[in-house]
Every structure is written in C-alpha cells, then in structure tokens.
Amino acid sequence: MRKLSAATVFSLGFRPFFLAGAAFAAVAVAIWALWLYGRLPEAQPVGGMLAWHRHEMPFGFAVAIIAGFLLTAVPNWTGRPGLNGWPLIGLVLIWLLGRLAWLLPISPAGVLLSQLSFLPLLAWVLGRDLVAAGKRENYPILLLITLLAGCQLMTLWGLWTDDTGLQRRGVLAALWLVGALMSVIGGRVIPFFIQRGLNRPATPAANPLPTKVLLVSGLLAAVTFAIGLNDVPRFWLAALFLLMGSLHLLRLWRWHDRGMWRVPLLWSLYLSYAWLVVAVFAMALWHLGLMPQQSLATHSLAVGGIGGLILAMIARVSLGHTGRPLLPSKAIVAGFALVLLAALSRVLLVPFAGWGLGVSALLWCVAFVLFLWRYTGILFSPRA
Fold first, then answer.
1. 19: closest CA among 383, 375, 382, 384?
2. Choice between 206 and 199, residue whose per-residue pLDDT is larger
3. 95, 93, 83: which is closest to 13 by C-alpha?
4. Is the pLDDT of residue 354 over 90?
5. Can you tell me the mean pLDDT for 268-275?
6. What three-state secondary structure class fits 68?
7. Confidence (pLDDT) at 274
8. How many CA atoms lie within 13 A of 348 on its CB side?
9. pLDDT surpassing 70 at residue 83
10. What is the per-residue pLDDT across 113-162, written as a single tens digit (0 to 9) for each?
C-alpha cells in the first residue's frame, strides 16, 4: 500500500486526473455515439442515456481536468505543497465512484448521493490553501467551483424528480460556467505562454476592467441558463452575448502573434479559445432570431472550446510539469487538429447529415486516444 501512495502518478493532481479525464472523454463519447446509432444493447443507465451524456461530459470529463489543473496550479500560486499520496488517491476514487454509479443497480437518489461530494471536497482543498496564503485574487475560481457544484445538484435533482427541463438548465449553466472559467484561466495563461513560447518581451499589463466585465457577464450568462431565460429568444440577452463576444475578440486581437502559427502548443490554445468566441456570438444570433438551433452554440462551446482547450492545456501542462521540452509529438499535434475538426463536424455537418455526429465523435475519440498513447508513460514517470 505504501508503494501505491508513493507512486509517481499520485505525486501531483494533474497526473491521475489528466489520465482519467482523457480516458473518460474517449470512452464516454464512443458509448454515446454507438448508442445513438443503435450499436449498443437497449439497457440504459439510471435516467436514460441522454441524462447520462448530459451529466457526464461537464461533471465527469471537464471537472476531472479542472481538478487536475487547479490541484497543480494552486500549489504554484501559494507555495504550499500540493495534494498527493492517499488524499489524492481518495479524491480520484470519489470521482471514479461517481462515474461507476450510473452503471450500478441503484436508484436516482443513489446516483445523486454518489456524485455530490467531489466538487465540494475540491473547493475545500483549494480554498484551504488559497485562504492560508491570502491569495484573494484567486477567490473567483473558488466561486466558480462552488457554483458548478450547485449546477450539479440542480441537474441530479432533475434526474431524481424526472424533471428533464431542470436537468437541461443545470447542464447548460454548468457549461457556461466552465466557459467563464476558460476566460479566467485562458486570460492568464494564453498570453503568458505566447510570450514565453516565442521569447517576446513582456508586454504592459492589460486594463483589468474588460477581464472583470467578462467574468461578471459570464456568471450572468450562466445564471440566465440556470433559471430558464434562454429557453426563448430575448433581445437583451443578445446584447449580453454580443458584449461578451466583443471582449473575447479584443483579447484574441491583443494576443495574436504571427509566430504562434509555427508552434502547435500555441495555435491549439488560440484556436480553442476562438471557439468560445464562436459560441458566444452564436448565442447572440440565436437570441436575434438569426440562427435556428441553440444546440449549435452549445456544442461550439462544448466540443471546440472546452474540448479543444482541455486537450491543448493538458498536453502543455503535462510536458512543463514533468520537466520535458515543450515539443509535442506529431501524434498529439494531429490530436489538436482532430478535436478542432470534431467541432467543425458537430456544428456544420450534423444539421445537414446524420453521419456528421459519427464523424465528430470519431475525431474526438481519436484525439484523446492519441493523448493517452503519447502521455501515459510521461505521467507515470518521474520528472525528467
């Protein structure tokens, strides 16, 4: 047992959670696509396959990667030791129990109880260190994690009460909270990575007001999804999303450097963030009555934005925190391209061709399998 707790893979949060999240991303989307095309048995998890898919992509996949990233970043921000050994193993097992609960012969209430401890525990672990170190500038991240826990409770309460509308609102609010987290974390690391990756001189600090407006508007957007205001088009919500999109575009313009197109670890981050911009403007168009399906905006965010940024971030962070050169293999560069193509397929092909979803799912799964192929050995190995 001592050997297990001392294993390299449990030395810091990014190692087990990046592996688990990437593996789950590939398996979960493969299961969803096979079921949609009638290639799986009729037996379904508690609440049905749609409820499982809705819940597991944000609260299973995305939350695992968020946990791995923050359990690694917060020790860097605070100078305090990161979670490791048995406490980290315990947190991973709690996450894994939540994934397996859907397959067990238990009631919706049992599924609900098995899920609800992970995010509060994560918030407590992160908050303990941030408060002890007095890092008040990072408290908004704690707020976002806490609100994600509330969205999960809403989603699972809808499952327990068979309220599909409540489930949908909880999941959509969670997706846009993850989008808000993307804007916070991306706003910090993407310009820094571009500057360091291209050896550019440090630029003057940007005006903090647009960043604060983006955070507040992102939280407001998530709240409007949670309370059902996005169920029908509303002009004032179009204005909100147009404001968000304009500020995101301003960021992309400020960050752009022609040299980044030669560096896969940079263009992958940049283009994934651009998908967040696409999602925000797509919501504005939907509220103006200029786009027929709100789901196109949702999947722009989920597949291109969240999926793309996650793959780019875990590839870069895994190399940096294991002491390896920031030179991804050709396989993972192909993965960056595949996940972005998966987003294009999901948004542009699916409305016109039934096979478009299968293409998108296949591209997505291959992208994350490539990550597992090239990075499993790295994440199990000591720092170089």
1. 375
2. 199
3. 83
4. no
5. 97
6. helix
7. 97
8. 8
9. yes
10. 788 899 999 999 999 999 998 989 899 999 999 999 999 999 999 988 88
| Under 8 Å between Cβ of 360 and 345 | yes
Q: Record the tokens describing residue 157, joined without a space.
A: 């309460």
Nearest to 254 by CA among 303, 210, 311: 210
Nearest C-alpha neighbor of 244 from the set 188, 179, 191, 303: 179
- Model confidence pTM above 0.85: yes
Walk me through the domains of the chain, giving residue ranges and CATH numbers.
2-380 (1.20.210.10)
The C-alpha angle 111, 155, 63, rounded to 5 degrees, equals 80
Give the Cα separation of 103 and 112 in Å (integer).
13
Whether the Cβ atoms of residue 237 and residue 273 lie closer than 8 Å to each other: no
Nearest to 24 by CA among 85, 98, 86, 87: 98
d(CA 266, CA 84): 30
For the beta carbon of residue 366, count every other beta carbon within 10 angstroms.
16
